[in-house]
């Protein structure tokens, strides 16, 4: 389960992308993701990253986190053509359903908690 610092749930259906292959594949080639789903990318070391939506058929919200699991940036990506950068070094990236960031009131500086399964 992924929780905001106020104890509100962000997602309960969690998948971890720990390997380089899993991180490169991400959500590509899927037709959709379940409601209440999130994929968490756990980077080996803090890095500045860029994301693309090539072969992703649906929009997503992206949450970039530092090593303390604090939100440093959020973004909304459109299917196929969306791209974004973390702008700074991050340790975790959460990809989830569109509208999650707005619906859950997620903003820069928020603390997010989850058990790292990598």
Percentage of residues in DSSP E strands: 35-45%
The number of helical elements comes to: 2
CATH class category name: Mainly Beta
Distance between the termini: 14 Å
CATH level 4 superfamily? Protein of unknown function DUF192
State the order of secondary-structure elements, H for helix, E for strand.
EEEHEEEEEEHE
> What would you call the quaternary organization?
single chain
Order of strands in the sheet with most strands: 3-4-9-6-7
User: In total, how many domains does the architecture comprise?
Assistant: 1
Helical proportion, percent range:
under 10%
State the shape.
Answer: globular
Q: How many whole angstroms does the radius of gyration measure?
A: 13 Å
Name the CATH architecture: Sandwich
Query: What is the number of E strands?
Result: 10
How would you classify the helix and strand content by structural class?
mainly beta
Unreliable residue stretches = none
Largest sheet properties: 5 strands, mixed
**Could you please say which CATH topology applies here?**
Jelly Rolls
Average pLDDT reading: 95
